[in-house]
Amino acid sequence: MADIWLVTDESRQHHALRVMHDRLSGDRRARRRFIRGCEVLARVQDHQFIVGYREHGKIQGRLYLLMEYVEGANLKELYARHDPVLVENVAQLLIDMALALEHIHACGFMHLDFKPENVLVSPNASVRLVDFDIAQPIPPAPKRMPSNPGTPAYMAPEQLARRPLDQRVDIFAYGVAAYELLTNQKPFNGATPTEILRQQTNRADFLSPRYHNADIPVALERIILRCLEQDPDRRYAHMSVLSHELQAALYL
Questions:
Q1: Are residues 91 and 206 in the same domain?
Q2: Which SS3 state, helix, strand or coil, does residue 110 take?
Q3: C-alpha to C-alpha distances, 233 to 142, 154, 171, nearest whole angstrom
Q4: What is the pTM of this model?
């Protein structure tokens, strides 16, 4: 949807400039999605684990977002190269990601595309959550979305099945990302959304996190498994409760 550029201002401060692809300039849906992401970020960015917002607008006919530059890589890239920052800071990364989602929910939004690619990590393991293009206000009751964007491997069953949903889909996505961070495996694999949904529903082949990594504390595994419950009513209702239990389980 967009290109990311490193830019420097007159005071030699670095920023990240996200510019919408020119080929999408005539796509009204893509334009609305880009602008919504900018507006949501402006609302939620006042937090240490959310990428900083600077401004957004139009330059040479193309929509842009100017935001904080984060030196480092996203979690998916760190997984791929088995970066030691993951092993050395895994507990803090888990907590910081949870606190980022807790803040977004407290601001009244659900992210709807929480995944490792959208978590930037600096060399000193500082987390920044990015990409709010498909974020939506948290509904007063579970609501069916008019469209179903997102990344299937991290989508909750109700999201994949196009059923009414709320912020608990983010909690499921957090559970998938946490499982992957701790085991280097995804809990549900499939080549298509239908296959992933089938695995989520029929868990005959599901393996607990400690099957892959016996060093995971039992209390932490219990938290992840609750996040991954098929029934949203059996998950955590609020990220604040999850964050509190997570910090207790990790003694942080």
A1: yes
A2: strand
A3: 11, 18, 12
A4: 0.95
